[in-house]
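To whoever is on call:

I kicked off a structure prediction for a single chain this morning and the downstream step that reads the tokens threw a length-mismatch warning. I double-checked the sequence; it's 302 residues and nothing unusual in it as far as I can see. Pasting both halves so you can look.
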Amino acid sequence: MNDTQHSEATLLRRYLLGQSNVDERSAVERRLMTDQQFLDDLTRAEEELIDEYARGNLAPDEKDRFEALFLNAPERREKIAFAQAFNRYLDRHPTAAPAQSRAHAPSVWWRRAALGLSAAVVLVVSLSAFFYWRIVQLRGQLASVDLQRAASEKNGKKLSDQLKEQQNRNQDLQREIAGLRDRTPSSDLLALRLASGWTRGSGQLPTARLLASTKRLRLDLTLDRDVLPHKSYQAQLQTLDGESLWSSNKLLARTIGARSLISVNVPASVLSPGDFRIALNGLAANGTAGEVATFYFRIEKK
């Protein structure tokens, strides 16, 4: 056995006994899905481990790991029982043919059996061993197919998750684009952002200068996050004396940074030069309404 084969045999033995690290285990499983010879080497390494266990040649720590991993699998228990039966047969029927000791006998159990049985028994056992080996080989191939299918399903799920994430990103971008379109000024729309808390004498009012082509004035009403959220809102346009000029219901708030924002589209036809206020009321889930905030602004026309 050359150095490469010895290294691979050591790697497979560590893998079967659960001693390999994450990188070694991943490398072995990837190669098992594509390399039939490597899969055959794994099968042989497993058979040699079973033979060593049946003959009691495993080190104590390897024996513990072997029993923890192998005795839980029904197909492996069958192999172990078969190997132990052969060893018991050899113990009861020693032969004088081999000059070498049992410690130096071939490690594969069916070769050891062939040395100690008569021609007829050897034929029967050899055929049984061949068919058993073929079953083991087919099970190994089935395990390889299962690994490949599991890898394909894992890759498919990963691609599905990536596609879903990309779709969510696309939806976010579409919403952002729609929001930008809503905020983009046009010849017939003018936007003005308002904050609550202004009182007379506290400074210049936020002012909107309407053009002759202006059809709507969008008022973006900003609320602090500490204001309790409501199911929906009503905005009422009033003069500073409290006269109601126009109202809009079922308005919804959206979160912008650390604030909430409610947009109200006021027809330009109800606006004339002067000072106005927007009284914002909130509708709770139980149907009760309450005042939320008041916003002031000024209209000028060009």
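Update from on-call: the warning came from a stale cache, not from the record. Cleared it. Sanity check on the structure: The helical segments are 3-16, 22-32, 36-54, 60-70, 74-92, 109-116, 119-183.
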